[in-house]
Design goal:
173 residues, mainly alpha, Multidrug-efflux Transporter Regulator, Chain: A, Domain 2, 2 domains, 10 helices, 71% helix
Amino acid sequence: MMTIGQVARKYALSRSTLIYYDKLGVLRPSGRSVSNYRLYAAADLERMDRIMLLRRAGLSLEAIKSLLKEPDSDLGAALERRLAAINTEIQALRNQQQVILGVLESPGLARQSRVMSKDTWTSMLESAGLDAEGMRNWHREFEKTSPEGHQDFLESLGLDANEISAIRRWSIG
């Protein structure tokens, strides 16, 4: 059995976080000491490992509680929903990045912001020796291997939906 302090150190959490987890019913200690301190058993630590993994995946404590409470709960579906939310958040952040760069109109800042424009990307491919057919093959392979990744990549270039659709059709046509 481990004390709350030992568990807090093991997981780099505060005691108050573990008390909060107990209050929510996410992680209840298996026992209490004679001094009424919380004591955690091996099974509690296994549960905590699972909680930490799901927190790193970005799931809320309520979602984690629900997943851990019901043995039949669909972890895969919960993670797929989280992944979809992350993709939406990433796209929203890319859009914000493009707006900020457009307002600031600073080419130097664009180079520092990890933004790749269509012109820069095309220029790099041409410098690497790809002609129009080589670029089409590159897009074709990307589309075939990872259609969603291809979509994300094109969105990251700041292209509008119509241009993205045209490039994706062109790459498979």
